[in-house]
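Following up on my earlier message about NAP. Here are the inputs again, as you asked, copied directly from the submission form:
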Amino acid sequence: MTAQTAQTAQRVDVLIVGGGFGGMYATYKFREMGLRIQSFEAGGGLGGVWYWNRYPGARVDLPSIDYSFSFSPEIEQEWTWSEQFAAQPELLRYINFVSERLSLDKHYQFNTRIERAEWDEARELWVLRTSQGQVWEAPFCIMATGPLSVPKDPEIPGLSRFKGVMHRAARWPHQEVRFEGLRVGVIGTGSTGIQIVQEVGKTAGELFVFQRTPSFTMPMRNVKLEPAYVAEVKRHYAGIREAARNSAVGGTRPQSTRGFFTCTPAQRRTLLEDAWKNGGLAMLGTFSDLLVNEEANEEVAEFVRSKIDEVVQDPVTADKLKPRGYPIFARRPCLDTSYYETFNQPNVHLVDLYEQPIVEITEKGVRTEKGEVELDMLILATGYDGLTGALTAFDVVGRGGRTVNQKWQNGAYSYLGLMMEGFPNLFMTTGPTGPAALANIVRISENDVDWIAALMVHMQHNGQATAEVMPEAEQAWMAHVGSLAKRSLLLKAKTWYLGANVKDKPLGLTLFTGGFLRYREHCAAATQDGYRKALSFTPA
Ligand code: NAP
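Thanks, got it. Here's what our run produced:
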């Protein structure tokens, strides 16, 4: 960093990038510790994915009770969820309620991207340049940039030629979008596409669903939360949070230690039927081995395929909607309210891209190998450059001028998803090689911020200026993550978990598959050991 930028820079103790759950909690936590903070968010407000993803039908797929902050007992009592699985507007209201209650947004600079982050070795400071031309510096930097914050357009020629209206799910307009009388196309049938299809199908003149890989989806069976139930939850929040923190998924979803084949075929069928009726991700928790036992997994997959036959009236459409060739739950399982039912409507058409791949987007619509589908509106629900995209989208420059892009050229590499060798005093929340996509992101965010805070306190007590993970500790963590991943069926599907959806991205499962509780235990072990085996420090 030049002397000139150093002169014009503004200085605080901690810089925080991101206004989702992780960034909000970091902002609160470090302020309460008496540190001077400055936070940044590219969006015009707080909420992260819930700020951007305003598409019709956007809804959380974990119970709202679990998908909320646990650090403030007051807020737990003051806020009341209306539905078991809250929709995006309610989630955003909650986020703004928390922000207002704790005066968080005053610490944020909105509509601001960080364009470069660089470690100044001589001065032991992170120096951040914003899209507005400012320079900020601080000894500590928190990248709370989220695993799903960089949306991805499909690699289809002609996208810019389309003369109709084009919407991207993850950049949905703030004003109401209407579909009545319109010919609408949706590309993408992951969790996002499924939520959009079932909602837009209700009012669109005609809806064309461009499906490449079908997803497994199960009934959400969302319900309004009764006052008596909410009161009961509020009385027991402490216990609910404790249970969530001690579970593999960071939530209160029941889990079982029962192996699939320990039950008779009749028992299995009864349990699967019950799970289907209960809704949510009950099925995944009904048996302990669905992500490791391929035979068990296939039986459950076949059960869900049979449900598609029960719902979808046209057998040809039903067959095309059936996912095959990858294990159920290896792609993120979707929860729907009426997805398969939507295909019974005369205005809804499934376009099977295995049968007729998309050739190009034209001025009028989508041309497949079988012809052109004319559209008034095209919606892209084509996913994200997940886990790593946010930190490879701009230059994050560590010790010796090495960037995160260089460090991750063969795939994400980090310690606990929290720190990286070569990047002193730089922290990620819900980073790659942690349990990011596989457990409740709010619980992970809180764990991560608390872990970072404890480390900062330790450094202050011991007169240390910088902390950096030692290469051996990072390698050992990566080896552990890798050996657990080998056993997981998650490897058997082409997904964003593996980086398979982004051209030329290194393939690999860089997620901790050992469950949230084990992850917390690893984090806690490092802290309890005084970081001796994991981190190296320099004196202040
Ligand atoms: P996604 O699961 O990656 O799905 C992207 C979809 O776009 C896939 O169906 C993909 O097909 C399709 N696609 C991409 N490029 C294409 C092309 N060139 N031609 C045709 N189709 C193409 O992304 P997502 O649905 O946005 O979900 C991402 C994650 O966000 C989820 O896994 C979940 O973790 C989270 N999410 C959660 C919720 C919730 O809480 N309810 C809602 C939405 C999202 P292929 O599979 O064949 O590539």
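One observation from looking it over: The pocket of NAP is lined by residues 59-61, 148, 154-156, 187-193, 195, 210, 212-213, 332, 353, 358, 381-384, 437, 496, 501 (CB under 6 Å). Hope that helps, and feel free to reply on this thread.
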